[in-house]
Amino acid sequence: MNKLLIIGYGYSAQALAKRLLPQGWAVSGTTRSQENFVEITEQGVTPLLWPGDISDALVDATHLLMSAAPNENGDPFLADLGSNIGQLAPNLAWAGYLSTTGVYGDHAGGWITEDTPLIPSTSRGEMRVAAEAEWRATGLPLHIFRLAGIYGPKRGPFAKVQSGTARRIVKQGQVFSRTHVEDIAQVLEASMARPNPGSAYNVCDDDPAPPQDVLTYAAELLGVEPPPEVAFEDADLTPMARSFYAENKRVSNEKIKQELGVKLLYPSYRDGLKALR
Fold first, then answer.
1. How far apart are CA 52 and CA 31, in angstroms?
2. For 3-152+178-206+252-266, CATH number?
3. Quick check: helix, strand or coil at residue 165?
4. Which of 152, 217, 199 is nearest to 178 (CA)?
5. Concatenated DSSP letters of 217-265
6. Cα–Cα distance between 223 and 140 in angstroms, integer?
7. Residue 268 in contact with residue 206, Cβ under 8 Å?
8. In terms of DSSP H, where are the helices of the chain?
9. Whether the predicted pLDDT of 201 surpasses 90
10. pLDDT band at 171 (very low <50, low <70, confident <90, very high)
11. What distance in Å separates the CA atoms of residue 51 and residue 69, rounded to the nearest whole number?
12. Fewer Cβ within 10 Å of end Cβ, the chain: N or C?
């Protein structure tokens, strides 16, 4: 039996579990709160409290997915277990790490691929680069997935548009790449079926677009007036929100198509938002 252990049973991990469970996979996932146990169990997943003893799950796992975010001290999972994770998880055929396209930094709207140098322009990006290196050093059969902006069920622009809190922040030439959570799940599943340890993959759709265009389309689907436009220079943004606009790039997804044979479920934000509506 294939046994997947997920470190950080969050949004993207849940979408993957939903695909694998009907195929007979055994899935376990860590959470920091025992209050989440009932919900996770109801999904057919075995909940594990972490930090805590998950040694049995590591020994049994044939596949390992890490989706916990790093911090200033590095990857929290490796900080807890050390670099001998290969000895603790001897049966792994595949390991995956969910990273971010933020590792590439700013490219003034230009296209980037998996071969683009990692020169992050934010502290979050720097922490991700460091975490990727930490996981590579473990010697596990590692695959890195650099995710663009994630959206999907219960995570999208509709709620903000409906509540009237959305704003169309306009910065000349700014584009973002995005990915639907279901496409993340199918990319991970495809990689498990075609392991290629050492590979990194960009996970995004075909349509990098200005953020204001996405909100305009969401409003159109809802049949309401688009949110007001606000110039980036005049926008009252949190430091984290403002940092997103410090990076402007178009992310290529050709590798997941050519190497993994992925056909995107939602090749554009228009397809994804229309399905969510």
1. 10
2. 3.40.50.720
3. coil
4. 152
5. HHHHHHTSPPPPEEEGGG----HHHHHHTT---EE--HHHHHHH----S
6. 50
7. yes
8. 11-20, 37-42, 55-60, 76-81, 85-88, 123-136, 158-163, 181-193, 211-222, 239-244, 254-260, 269-276
9. yes
10. very high
11. 14
12. N
Side chain identity at 140, as an amino acid letter?
L
List, in order, residues 6 or more apart from 183 with CB less than 8 Å away.
Answer: 203, 205, 262, 264, 265, 266
Q: Is the pLDDT of residue 160 over 90?
A: no
Q: Is 223 exposed, middle or buried (0-12, 13-18, 19+ CB in 10 A)?
A: exposed
Distance CA 260, CA 255 (A): 7
* Sequence-distant (≥ 6) Cβ neighbours of residue 60 within 8 angstroms: 3, 5, 91
Q: What one-character DSSP code corresponds to residue 109?
A: T
Residue 151 corresponds to which amino acid?
Answer: Y
pLDDT of residue 165: 86
